[in-house]
Amino acid sequence: MSQSDTRRNLGLALLGSEITIVFRRRRNQAMLLALAAVPILIAVAVRLSSNTSGRGPAFLASISENGLFVALTALTVSIPLFLPLTVGVVAGDTIAGEANLGTLRYLLISPAGRLRLLLVKYAGAAAFCLAATAIVVIAGVAIGAALFPVRPVTLLSGDTIDGAEYAVRCLLLIAYVSMSMLGLSAIGLFLSTLTTVPVGAMAATIVLSAASQILDVLPQLAWLHPWLFSHYWLGIADLLTSPISFDSFQSNALLQLGYIAVFGTLAYGRFATKDVLS
Amino acid sequence: MPSKWTRWIPAALVPIVAVAGVVLIPIAADATPALPEKSPQQLLEFIAGSADAQYSGTVEQSSHLGLPDLSSLGSSYRGGAGSDSPVSAAVELLTGTNSARVFVGGPDTARIQVTDTLAERDVIRNGAEAWTYDSKTNAVQHVTATPGTRPDTGATRTPAELATQFIDGLEPSTTISVTETARVAGRAVYQLVLTPDDDATLVGSVILSVDSETGLPLDVRIFADGQSDAAFAVGFSSIDFSAQDASLFNFTPPAGATVEEHQVDGNSDTAPDKGEFTKPEVTGAGWSSIAELPAGTASDLGDSEASALLDQVLVPVTGGRALETSLVSVFLANDGRVLVGAVAIDQLQAAAAQ
Amino acid sequence: MTDGALAIETHGLTKRFGSQLAVNQLDIAVPSGSVFGFLGPNGSGKTTTIRMLLGLASATSGEIRMLGSAMPQSLQSVLPRVGALVEGPAIYPFLSGRANLARLDSADRFASSRTRTARVDAALDRVGLTHAARKKAHAYSLGMKQRLGIANALLTPRDLLILDEPTNGLDPQGTREMRNLIRSLAAEGTTVFVSSHLLAEIEQTCSHVAVMSAGRLVAQGTLDDLRAEGVTRVEVRTPDLDLAREVLARWGLQSQPGPIDSSLTAALTTSVPVEQLSEALVIAGVRLRGFTAEGASLEDRFVALTGEGFDVAE
Question: Which protein family is named in the record (chain C) (predicted)?
Fold first, then answer.
């Protein structure tokens, strides 16, 4: 028999292939570049404007004094809109994009296995979340160091930390924010199993992220707030106090895990029973 | 495929497990832990003995005073200095939910961090020194108390004496009792209940939750008459009784911060006095006391933002304008006097008329 | 694989979309080693059947066995031995042809990553795409995409190939290459299951045929069987017209005078085996000058079986 010489392998090749595809797509590269442009635009704008004490996010004024704040400001600006936008595009594209190209049927008869394909697709989206967050922070740190003086960083509590600890906190910020996007990715994955029109799944995902953030500021719905996946998105302040607080980190991790579990299993239920007709 | 529906089982189970986890885990913890009984006197002594405790935790404060929601007006997002005005600060305190991280390293070292969205205000006390830091304005205030002149209140008295003094002060107008045990921040607590005997006051009862191991008060809730939810509550949502790192209380102003120095006479409070408020005149006794501020106070409150806020909450009544909450009433008489008390508006009007 | 085993076998296979029966009680048997033509007009249920065979869609009822295993329970172990082209090729337009194949190959857990590059190149070579392997697939013509789809089906040695309309979009040259490819694969022992609405294609390559119409199987067997069944008229040329008329009448056939004087023709109303008829005439002593079994062409037969023929079925 033709298979006697080959053994079933772990199948990590598909994961590798998926990650390669996510990052080789022009569209995704363009989105990453746009994210990198956020800190650059902020830094250049602040550098060019003589009046830096104007209104704006709390950190904007600090940039001219300390370049390391560029990353933080860029992250704060990106979290409500740009990050969910790009993550929504990638997550909404996962299954629906393959269905739209028709490649979904070829992956399935390869056979990729429906659960395995779903996991690999989610892993690809998660990798994009990490890259998207990391690029904002890294571009921010780089442009900040290039355009502004770099001093020891003052935390929100007024305490000062050195470069090494700042690097640790930057890594924690990346971890926190990319984790924040995982729940949204799971929602996108589920929506993506419902349709063969990727744009529909992307738009629905992005609309949900906006809706969640709107609900989160309506005081009448205070009881709902801790259950909204965007509730802890701006909880990054916890990582910038001294002593560092992991309260938000923990609550956020639990919440995102809940969303991953709920929408992951919904996506599985849908995808494993779906007739692939495209 | 007959087994098709089984693929949906995980999707059905996960929310059930999640909801069960959220609902059952708090229930699983014994809601009324068994503790050795204590009388109010013993409990108060217990509290007084907790002054040396070291701990850190998160304090949550919430108000349900029946005020219109003003969070959009008193929003902390606005960068201008206006939001730091006393009125909007008060509004913030009275309408929303606030939280702060608290670190206590003994009777005279403490650090409080109030976190806003991507901003933080710190108050650090270390012996005779105190610092405040506001990350939004990058401003530091440094207060040093003149050493030695500080009268040593309390230290010479035993916890038992303090308890007796407290009870004697309240006894004529208040019933003090200890009700069933409860849990606050995951710890077993005694609950001390103060119930005003006075019918005139809006205060229904005050419940003080006391940690059963250390005697530290963990939670205070003030209930308005006939309300089941606390009108005002402040308490720990989490607490950890471990020794605190001394470096936490040694504050060095960051580079670039504006530092304002204050010298304070050891006799007054550590907090810097912001203005010279006239001492209010108090009429009535106990829970239904009314404080009266003389004419002119109302106009002093005010920048434009403050008056905008006041316009939102004040209702015109006979003889002036009033703010009525479930717990406290404020009456701004037309002649500029301000009357405040934990009583109904008509009593403030009556007091103003005298 | 033993002779006589079936590569594909279905029993009562049914697929219902809402109130519409796309496939109705389908029983097909594809012998191992055969080149099996799956014929039917557009919309007759061919592609839906193929989707069910490959586990892309679930059957409403009925059973499927493929390469000896029950489906869809054994999908994961059977599919690596099956290459398929379903409803046209599908490509990642932003990847090169070679990267497209590598991507799909990586989804197969039995496919070794070590031999991937070599296998991809071999598959590209087999369909004549080597020169365009580095080109981005969005620049491919329809025929090149079709070739790429075939190459994907040939990435690993397969026991069964399921090809849905494999010559779609191919020029005559490509169509011929496809026929040769199918023949050479069959010669290697691979069972090939080809669906098509083009009769000529099936006629030239297949050993076995099944015909579908409106979700039902209307005929199945070897190509010769189907041809034989298609005989509708015999012409007998003989000086012994009366005797011949008598013999034909014995088989229940009404005969008329033929196109020339000494001839008879008879329409085959029932399925009378032509070879037995000729035998009977000879035994009866009819001196035959000629005996012609006139077939409706296979095409007529196909139209007869599928009703309106090439119109898209509702």
Answer: Belongs to the ABC transporter superfamily.
**A116: helix, coil or strand?**
helix
What whole-number distance in Å separates Cα of residue B57 and Cα of residue C304?
Answer: 86
The CATH number of residue B288's host domain is 3.30.310
pLDDT above 50 (res B273): no
Q: Check: CB of residue B221 under 8 Å from CB of residue B206.
A: yes
Are both B295 and B244 inside the same structural domain? no
CB pairs under 8 A between A and C: 107
Whether residue A57 is predicted with pLDDT greater than 90 in this model: the reply is: no
Domain residues for the domain of B292 are 281-353
| pLDDT value, residue A8 | 60
| Residue at which a domain ends, from B264, B296, B318 | B264
**Residue that is last in its domain, among B264, B297, B323:** B264
Q: Is residue B3 part of a domain?
A: no
Task: Kindly state whether residue B21 falls inside one of the protein's structural domains.
Answer: no
How far is C219 from chain A, CA to nearest CA, in Å?
A: 26
Same domain (yes/no): B46, B159: yes
Euclidean distance between the first and the last CA atom of chain C, given in angstroms as a whole number = 39
pTM score? 0.82
Rounded-to-integer distance, Cα B345 and Cα A126, Å: 58
What is the pLDDT, as a whole number, of residue A122?
A: 96
Q: What is the CATH number of domain C6-222?
A: 3.40.50.300
- Cβ of C107 within 8 Å of Cβ of A14? The answer is yes
Give pLDDT tens digits for B211-262.
999 888 899 998 988 888 888 888 998 899 988 888 889 888 887 788 888 8
Residue numbers of A between 216 and 275 with CB closer than 8 Å to C: 273, 275
Rounded to the nearest angstrom, the minimum Cα separation between C234 and chain A is 47
| Record: contact A13-C95, CB cut-off 8 A | no
Q: Enumerate neighbours of C (3 or more CB pairs within 8 A).
A: A, B
Instruction: State whether ipTM is beyond 0.95.
Output: no
Q: Are residues B330 and B245 in the same domain?
A: no
Are residue B126 and residue B199 in the same domain, yes or no? yes
Residues B297 and B347 in one domain: yes
Residue A82 pLDDT greater than 90, yes or no:
yes
Contact assignment for A25 to C94 by CB distance below 8 Å = yes
- Inspect the interface and report whether the beta carbons of C95 and A112 lie closer than 8 Å: no
Angstrom distance (rounded) from CA B31 to CA B26:
8
DSSP B298-329: HHHT-SHHHHHHHHHH-EEETTEEEEE-SS-E
Nearest to A160 among B11, B97, B254 (CB): B254
Q: Into how many domains does chain B fold?
A: 2
In A, which residues are within 8 Å of B141 by CB distance?
none
> Do B196 and B322 belong together in one domain?
no
Task: Name the minimum distance, in Å, from the CA of C57 to any CA of chain B.
Answer: 10
Nearest to A158 among B8, B116, B253 (CB): B253
pLDDT at C154: 92
Within this chain, do residues B307 and B247 fall inside the same structural domain, yes or no? Answer: no
Average pLDDT of chain C to the nearest whole number: 86
Q: Which of C197, C104, C204 is nearest to C148 (CA)?
A: C104
With beta carbons under 8 A apart, name residues in chain A contacting C54: 105, 108-109
Q: Is B25 on the interface with A (CB under 8 A)?
A: no
